[in-house]
Amino acid sequence: MSNPRIAFVGAGNMTASLIGGLRAQGVAADAIRASNRSTEKLERLASEHGIATFTDNAEAVAGADIVVLAVKPQVMQAVCRELAAQLPDQTLIVSIAAGITCASLQRWLGAGTAARAIVRCMPNTPSLLRQGVSGLYANAQVNAEQRRQAEQLLSAVGLALWLDAEQQLDAVTAVSGSGPAYFFLLLEAMTAAGERLGLPRETAALLARQTALGAARMACESALEASELRRRVTSPNGTTEAAIKTFQAGGFEPLVQQALSAAAARSAELAEQLSK
Ligand SMILES: NC(=O)C1=CN([C@@H]2O[C@H](COP(=O)(O)OP(=O)(O)OC[C@H]3O[C@@H](n4cnc5c(N)ncnc54)[C@H](O)[C@@H]3O)[C@@H](O)[C@H]2O)C=CC1
Ligand SMILES: O=C(O)[C@@H]1CCC=N1
Predict the structure, then answer these.
(1) Ligand 2 atom, smallest distance to 125 CA
(2) For NADP(+), which residues are the binding ones (predicted)?
């Protein structure tokens, strides 16, 4: 099956990013469907991408080869139980929800049926620009063709990296799932600092944004480690050193470690709380 029919359940930020990326990649509009509880987001998706949309999840998933579960973790159980009887055994289930395990999905979707083929993944919002990155984990029921399809789905919007252990998704969530927000926070802080140092707000924002873009491209395109790229900006006793020393005196690296540990712990905690 070279052109699988894909249904998205939940049409929020991530679905919009993924569908935008798939369409930009040339995936046909009639291969994509989406459902959502409310109509506003569906209308936007239908007008931007020409896809069929539904307020009834069961209607959206009818005939789909791949069902992407993209609702918030807290409503996943209800959505799965609602769809359990509608999904044939061979449907590939792709869940993008933070902290919902394959075992929970299987239990909610599978009552009385054969074990489901489930790919759990953690993408991120730059998928909208096809600059996303995702970690993917496949359970034992996922066959080679389905693995290829899941990889094709996620690699249409960025890099797709397979994981050996489901638990690693907590770390992926902490690094790259939530990661765009950390860079936006840094941009906000640098813009505010530039403004306080006397720049017009728009100028400060532009300087910060373009610097982030340039630095990210250097990090991606250079063969050098980030530490070496940093060293090359940092003249002995110069301006960068003054800033870096200030970051480090404030505990920057341990703070980053603490922040990412909190994200990973929250992902594991969601898995525990929502598995009931
Ligand atoms: N936002 C992000 O950066 C990332 C989010 N995720 C995961 O993606 C999932 C979706 O997140 P977002 O798109 O940010 O959330 P969102 O809140 O923007 O979208 C969820 C959508 O689901 C709809 N919905 C709620 N109940 C429903 C139901 N019973 N049936 C159908 N639709 C229903 C809501 O109306 C909403 O439009 C979450 O599980 C989150 O953990 C994963 C990676 C990154
Ligand atoms: O904040 C969250 O829970 C979701 C998962 C990764 C990014 N956003």
Answers:
(1) 7
(2) 70-73
Name the binding residues. Answer: 57, 70-73
Binding pocket residue ranges, ligand 2, CB within 6 Å: 98, 173, 177-178
pLDDT per residue as tens digits for the range 105-128: 999 998 656 789 999 999 999 988
Which residues fall within 8 angstroms of residue 156, CB to CB, at 6 or more apart?
Answer: 21, 22, 25, 27, 130
Which range marks the domain in which residue 156 is found?
6-171
What is the ipTM, given to two decimal places? 0.96
The model's pTM: 0.91
Q: pLDDT digit string (tens) for 151-208?
A: 989 998 899 999 999 999 999 999 999 999 999 999 999 999 999 999 999 999 999 9
Where a domain ends, among 124, 143, 171? Answer: 171
- Ligand number nearest to the C-alpha of 54: 1
Q: Which burial class, exposed, middle or buried, applies to 197 when counting CB atoms under 10 A from its CB (0-12, 13-18, 19+)? A: exposed
Closest ligand 2 atom to Cα of 73: 3
Our CA angle for 179, 121, 24, nearest 5°, is 80
pLDDT of 3 reads 83
In angstroms, what is the span from residue 230 Cα to ligand 1's centroid? 37
Residue 71: give its domain's CATH number. Answer: 3.40.50.720
Nearest ligand atom owner, CA of 60 = 1
Low-confidence stretches of the chain (pLDDT beneath 70)? 1-2, 111-113
Structure-block tokens of residue 226: 């980030």
Question: Is there an atom of ligand 1 within 6 Å of 98 CB?
Answer: yes
